Amino acid sequence: MNEYDSKRIYDVVKEIGFEKTDQYKEADCYLLNTCHIRDKASEKVYHEIGRVKKIFRSKKKPLVIVAGCVAQAENQEMLKREPYIDIILGPQAYHKINDIILNFTEKLKVEETEFDAVSKFEYLSRIQNKVGKATSFLTIQEGCDKFCHFCVVPYTRGPEYSRPFDQIINEAKSLADQGSKEIILLGQNVNAYNYNDMRLSNIIGEIEKIKNVQRIRFTTSHPKDMTDDLIEIYKDSKKLMPLIHLPVQSGSDKILNLMNRKHTVKEYLKTYERLKKINPLVEFSSDFIIAYPGEEEKDFLDTLSLIKEVKFINSYSFIFSPRPGTIAEGLQKIDKKISLKRLEKVQEILLDNQIKKNKSLENKIIEVLAENQTDDKTKIFGRSEYMTPVIFDGNKKDVGKILKIKIIKSNRNTLFGKMIDNLDKKVA
Ligand code: SF4
Questions:
Q1: Angle, in degrees to the nearest 10, between helices 265-278 and 228-236
Q2: How would you label 212-239 residue by residue, b for 16+ Cβ within 10 Å and e otherwise?
Q3: What is the pLDDT of residue 132?
Q4: Cα of 82 to ligand 1 centre, how many Å?
Q5: Per CATH, which fold does 365-427 belong to?
Q6: Pocket perturbation via mutation, ligand 1, pick of 141, 147, 327 by most ligand atoms within 8 A of CB
Q7: Quick one: pLDDT at residue 258?
Q8: Which CATH superfamily is domain 2-114 in?
Q9: Which residue has the least CA distance to atom 1 on ligand 1?
Q10: pLDDT of amino acid 423
Q11: CB of 154 closer than 6 angstroms to any ligand 1 atom
């Protein structure tokens, strides 16, 4: 979502004449769009600002803006601790950036962290989302009402908000007109989308009708919001990709309860089984928090069993690390050595799933969306339907197309193949 936000912030500031530069020293304005999910997020911001300070030591200071979730969470604290920062801008307030910049005076620092998603998206809908890529993000929903005990999102992004249906479809059409072949629908709880009873399944159905869009994905989902209509759409959709990112976090009901996840392992497995029955090509990916406070050996073994049963691919796993201001912040952490051992075991099994999946594709022909050229310009980087990176020989004209690739070999992260056909010609 930060990538989407950064792009949209750029679309907005272009209106008042800003251009991106990779020449740090020449910048008039330095904007850091921050994420609060990972460990030591605010320390990383201060470190980065320190770097900017050094670069501009003997030059006129640029306007320094900290945007995003760290800005939202730390707000006034940041301005106090680092006077080099001029403006603090929360993730629901970045549509106000032009007014703030134009009215900024050095004596008056600005902190704008209001939750104002309605006017943000109204404003953004009037500014074209300019793409230059085969795959585009499209935010349809923001915020979260679930309050998992480990998570900062409800505090940094605010309550659940769903954008108006027509606004989303118009943006999708505009992205397709500009060449996007794949649209990734975004939301902190993307499948909680609900605008006047229009749900995520309605958005997928409508985008499916846009001729130039050939792939649809959505992320991130909550197991509780995998409603019947959304499950059913996997039966007939031709464009919805078969990888479902559905974070489960733990395979133990006790831990899910301690995390306040609001679902059980049985309910999760029921969704998995229903989807597999409707469409056997579907695979699941997930996030796992290992060594959450209270996790005993038995709970951990339950997580391993679930990973083996669902055969998750393309997944993420982390040792629990407390986030400031959350309920889990004050809980007793599990011994570091035990945590690390558990993480290694989880990652070993996830890796094994991934290697097996990649191996099973060798000598098969798969469809790949070519995203860009590799740095040496001799090869193309693309992604399979399951989001796995694919590398193959090709040139610039292949970028942005869906191609048939025969997979020759694979490793744990990547598939390597040879181009067989250009499916785009047939669509045209
Ligand atoms: S559902 Fe997701 S975004 Fe919401 S609190 Fe839980 S982890 Fe955070």
A1: 30
A2: ebbbbbbbbbbbbbbeeebbebbeebeb
A3: 64
A4: 30
A5: OB fold (Dihydrolipoamide Acetyltransferase, E2P) (2.40.50)
A6: 147
A7: 98
A8: Methylthiotransferase, N-terminal domain (3.40.50.12160)
A9: 146
A10: 63
A11: yes
Residue 75's φ and ψ, nearest 5 degrees, are 20, -110
Angle at 259 between CA 254 and CA 261, to 5 degrees: 90
Please give the structure tokens belonging to residue 286: 């997930």
pLDDT of residue 108: 79
Residue 390 corresponds to which tokens in the numbers above?
């694919």
Query: How many whole angstroms separate alpha carbon 160 and alpha carbon 146?
Result: 9
Domain with CATH 3.40.50.12160 in the chain: 2-114
């969470």: which residue's tokens? 73
pLDDT digits 0-9 by tens, 395-421: 889 999 999 999 999 999 999 999 987
User: What is the rounded distance in angstroms from the CA atom of residue 137 to the CA atom of residue 135?
Assistant: 7
Q: Is 147 in the pocket of ligand 1 (CB under 6 A)?
A: yes
Ligand 1, atom 6: closest residue by C-alpha: 148
Q: Write out the residue limits of the CATH 2.40.50.140 domain(s) in the chain.
A: 365-427
List, for the chain, all residue ranges whose pLDDT scores fall below the cut of 70: 131-132, 422-428
